[in-house]
Amino acid sequence: MDSYYNIKDLSVIYYTCNHIQGYFADNIRDRLLKVCEGIPIISVSHRPLNFGKNICVGDIGISTYNIYKQILIGAKEADTKFLAMAEDDCIYTLSHFSHRPLDDETFSYNTNRWNLDPSGVYFHRVRAGMCMCIAPREFLIKTLESRFDKFPTILPKEELRGWGEPGRDRPNKMLHEDIKLELFESAVPTICFNHYTGLGGRRRMMGKDTVVEKLDPWGNASDLWKDCTANDCS
Q: What pTM was computed for the model?
């Protein structure tokens, strides 16, 4: 059970390529604002946004490489000890933001993350995803700067293998990293929308996934999908 609610040592880095627009995008940001009451938000976007402290990087292209570039830009702008990542298609909770890494050189990932599918179900698998990362600011900056020093220009898609979540594959054969990773579960589940507009497209459910139609405290999957997206995406 999470019990750490000192929000003064945390900033949220919200990064987006602005492909999600309209009601869906506004709803996700409104929910994040409500949860982050008192927590600074730094938004790094491809288009100008009136959301937290905004840094517009322009149309730099959509890729994993550029996502980490946006994260690094936001991290350098922050001034708190810890940073939490936030993506434009996820619903977060204060329970999630209450967690802090074990030490100053550990990346923490919340595995109490459920995917919301337009078919009317939630599905869950244990996975370290960057959208659920909480990390020490200085170590995050050091780690990403080291990556970009080794690879100063964007890589072809087929060469991006291993350019993933810090610590997820350790030691990383491509980046020669050996970073500590910590998995944790927030008291309240987080929700990520499974839709075609995302960087990886819509994820397929697998046989080993846990699948449910109702999830506390979020209620029925079909109702939450409609409430958040107005059914304007799939």
A: 0.92
